[in-house]
């Protein structure tokens, strides 16, 4: 699979398979030896599991201190990007527009969730 950094959307990290995760990590120029990518592959580490990686867990897989620290920092950075990706939006409509989702009919959904969504001037916002 050939991917570029531009194709790696942090909001989708949790959906990455092992190969996509490894491709991304290689693009980060962490200067890890190939054996560490092989460990990630053998342990079937996906984007979702990588986000919760700790130095202790990586050490248990055979990572030395330096590489374990680098990967833990990378996981933390990705997790922060994931949080910021959604916290930067002011409304559900902005999220839908960003991902090219047609918001027609969103009002129909919101009528069943009045405690969650507040409709003002054609703008759906979380209460």
Q: Would you give an account of this structure?
A:
The chain has 127 residues and is mainly α. It has two domains: 5-87, Orthogonal Bundle (DNA polymerase, domain 1), CATH 1.10.150; 92-126, no CATH class. It is built from seven helices and two strands. The protein has helices at residues 18-27, 34-42, 47-51, 55-60, 65-87, 92-98, 106-110, and strands spanning 117-120, 123-126. The chain has a two-stranded antiparallel sheet with strand order 1-2. Strand 1 and strand 2 form a beta hairpin. The protein is elongated. Mean pLDDT is 76; it is low at 1-7 and 111-122. Residues 13-81 form the SAM domain. Pfam families: SAM_2 (PF07647).
Low-confidence stretches: 1-7, 111-122
Strand order of the largest sheet: 1-2
Element order, helices and strands?
HHHHHHHEE
Strand content: 5-15%
The CATH topology of the largest domain, please?
DNA polymerase, domain 1
The rough form would be described as: elongated
The helical percent reads 40-55%
Average pLDDT for all residues: 76
Q: Work out the number of β strands.
A: 2
CATH superfamily of the largest domain: Transcription Factor, Ets-1
Distance between the termini: 41 Å
Our Rg estimate from Cα atoms comes to 19 Å
- The assigned CATH architecture of the largest domain is Orthogonal Bundle
Q: Find the structural class using helix and strand composition.
A: mainly alpha
- Could you describe the largest sheet, including whether it forms a barrel? 2 strands, antiparallel
User: What's the helix count?
Assistant: 7
Oligomer: single chain
């Amino acid at each position: 699979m050939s991917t570029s950094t531009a194709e790696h959307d942090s909001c989708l990290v949790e959906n990455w398979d092992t190969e996509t995760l490894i491709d991304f990590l290689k693009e980060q120029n962490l200067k890890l030896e190939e054996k560490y990518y092989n460990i990630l592959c053998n342990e079937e580490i996906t984007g979702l599991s990588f986000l919760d990686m700790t130095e202790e867990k990586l050490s248990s897989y055979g990572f030395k201190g330096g590489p374990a620290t680098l990967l833990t920092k990378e996981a933390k950075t990705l997790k922060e990007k994931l949080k910021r990706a959604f916290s930067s939006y002011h409304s559900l409509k902005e999220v839908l527009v960003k991902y090219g989702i047609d918001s027609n009919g969103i009002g129909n959904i919101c009528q069943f969730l009045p405690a969650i969504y507040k409709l003002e001037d054609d703008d759906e916002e979380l209460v």
